[in-house]
Structure of Phosphatidylinositol-4-phosphate 5-kinase type 1 alpha:
Amino acid sequence: GTTSSALKGAIQLGITHTVGSLSQKPERDVLLQDFEVVESIFFPNEGSNLTPAHHYGDFRFKTYAPIAFRYFREMFGIRPDDYMYSLCNDQLIELSNSGASGSLFYVSSDDEFIIKTVQHKEAEFLQKLLPGYFMNLNQNKRTLLPKFYGLYCVQAGGKNIRIVVMNNLLPSSVRMHLKYDLKGSTHKRRASAKEREKAIPTYKDLDFMQDMQDGLLLEGDMYNALCKTIHRDCLLLQSFKIMDYSLLVGIHNVDKACREQVSEEAVAGAMDQRRPPGQKSLYSTAIEAIQAETGGTGSLDTEDKTGGIPARNSKGERLLVYIGIIDILQSYRFVKKLEHSWKALVHDGDTVSVHRPGFYAERFEKFMCNTVFRKITCK
Amino acid sequence: GTTSSALKGAIQLGITHTVGSLSQKPERDVLLQDFEVVESIFFPNEGSNLTPAHHYGDFRFKTYAPIAFRYFREMFGIRPDDYMYSLCNDQLIELSNSGASGSLFYVSSDDEFIIKTVQHKEAEFLQKLLPGYFMNLNQNKRTLLPKFYGLYCVQAGGKNIRIVVMNNLLPSSVRMHLKYDLKGSTHKRRASAKEREKAIPTYKDLDFMQDMQDGLLLEGDMYNALCKTIHRDCLLLQSFKIMDYSLLVGIHNVDKACREQVSEEAVAGAMDQRRPPGQKSLYSTAIEAIQAETGGTGSLDTEDKTGGIPARNSKGERLLVYIGIIDILQSYRFVKKLEHSWKALVHDGDTVSVHRPGFYAERFEKFMCNTVFRKITCK
């Protein structure tokens, strides 16, 4: 098998090559066919006239839909040089919190990009999704969907390791006091004992309902804009028969952070010092979800540069909320059809998170806009 | 069979109904599935609770991809009310120059819209084209492709009559002194004797090469922008294996028009008075092709409001040139595959207009940017 360091090395060599060779091709419009293209290049250990020598085993690197992803990166404001530099010029850092999916996660050392290994079916599904993803990106600038920057495959030792490059939703320079993975389902949606032992556990729906009974309070304009965005995203996901996605919610408590800062030098403020703060503020998904269409200016503007949405908790403390819809690839029609039929027999339909896409979307939307986010009433 | 007046009436009733019922549906993003939708409504002679009574035979009206075309109309700046009003509130005028295709052409009485009957295969092909058309519209604002506003089908007396609503490239308020249908082919590309008898014949490639040996002279910026646009459009058409399209070129000679105006009252200036000038200047395709990306302002701005591209002929006379790519539906892979194989045997490959799409596109582009349009050298 490929060791983690060999995988990281292969990813970096592969991305360097593919971005480099792409930059030599002239700019042109993305065509429908571009979504189906797969480019492949062989990296022999001893090097070739196209590839450098390296100290890993021979491998092959495949790039899916290169022209389409170049367009997406451009739409997201990622310059080719920055993309390559962030991912390839320094060590990729492996994250331990791989969750239940069994995926490996890496983050670029500048904290900008997440690399996630995906299964064959997920990669295939993402490729099928690309035309609809293109359409969404062009109509719905506020979308909370993952920003997909690239899809690749490393073939080595008879194995295929598929990876997807995405935006990092939670900037490591911002201390998250609370973290939730929310689906709008109550069935078994509580963080495990093991999860709770972590420094910053990822809590779930039942935990949220118990700990934050008044939800996250938003100004009226922001609340409306956010719920509109969630509605549009849910319609899209439903149209693709996608289910089981989550809203990842990171909460930074500004007031708490101020109090903590006083005694910070004494305490081990480990989290904040792990890495230098991101340079390009790519974490903007959250704030974009409510203000992309206003052009980033106007009444919804905030001083925060990390992309958090300003909110309050029931105590009136100031919060910055970081959100994004995650895990949209791992569940869809084919996989979940079976699962649903027997789970629906066993459990109450309303609380089973694996349900038909329309029901899933509606429940998700309702939970987020009634329970998680609330409008501040009379100031 | 359906008489022309019954067809016009059915079109107007159908469009009124479909635009009206669409306006009652809430705005939402276009999804991939929307391209495949066909809505159908029955119009019995005696009326129904959904449709008014009318004095034609019973008919059924089908609307293809209503949500997608609503999006396209919005992108083109056509408000639903204006669309309905222009097409349905006054008589549709039948045009006589149906050409070789056998299609019927109607123009709305305000001169804004062209309605064209299309064959089953063409309608089917347009529907398949829609995702790629969407992509092009979002990337290439300068495109010279037809603006498709709607695709419908009238079913009456066992017959299906499919129609497509498009922009009118040549404003009737502007007298066209010359008109060309250009393909970049020389094989049989000369206007027939019958065509030449018309008041304003549509000339072809060989006529152009003979009559306008120095081509249409454009300022450097405009020339470059236009050729870039033609290049991008050709790449798209090639990607869809489309061939046999033409560049429709209408030339208004400003200086000639000034001279004519002096004696106009004496002469029958019939052309100009046929209809009131268009209200909304939808003929902007031509000028958009060189300036859409500059937002309509900047150095390329002209005083002309009808959308003509300012140019000169070899005598130095001022021209306004109206252009657009037409006939992109009637020829594609399936239809033309056969035709090519035997024509290629008979004729020189270079001069047969029916050739493989890549060759067709390249020859088209070369002809337009080398022979038809020329850059003004040293002022």
In short: Residues 266-279, 294-300, 333-342, 344-354 of chain A have pLDDT under 50 and may be disordered.
